[in-house]
Amino acid sequence: MNQTFDIIKNLTEADYYKNANLHIHTNFSDGKLHPSEIIELAKQKNLKYISITDHNTLEAYNHIDLDSNALLKMTGCNLQIITGVEFDCWYKSNFMHILGYGIDLNNEELNNLCARNPNESKLDIIRISTSRKAPEVIKIIKEAGGISVLAHPCCCWNINIKKMITELKSFGLDGVEVYYPYIRHRAIVKFHTIKKVNAIAKELNLLITGGTDCHNDDL
Ligand SMILES: [Zn+2]
Ligand SMILES: [Zn+2]
Question: In order of start, what are the domains of the chain with their CATH numbers?
């Protein structure tokens, strides 16, 4: 298994509320902060692991110095950055977000899957018109050396979420996001409980990840 898989496998629920945040947006998608401001904040908060996961774009990583193994160790502190992205895609009639972690930023297919214009990384209304399909997204993330995670599954408009996650697993899905606050619009549009998704993840032996999905000026 790869390094990212091992790191994520070893992170606990307590870590996600204390020193790991694997779901962060920058101003290269619809977030507010520049990647350097995010790294500064993460250091102030003594975080150990973060991942910048912009919508359909890797552009933020052009503004961060990464070492060759795709994990950044900042000098003078313990912060490590796990490379990340969040793709809009469809599976059958379900619109969803799939996170990719530990991806090779130079992978050609992965880059081809990214936004062709800046709007595709910004406006929700444009992003929903994507033609990306979940099985393809999962496959390309894997080929780029990464692991794929279904983002905020409690928001999925699907009554039989267990069936859906089981099917996504058959395409290679590695995990589901469980530990994160359901804030913003998600506080209203929530179809499943965290408890339920957590139980499904354990039953299907999937990785469990977490992050704040922050778009504003805090992590
Ligand atoms: Zn999302
Ligand atoms: Zn997000």
Answer: 3-210 (3.20.20.140)
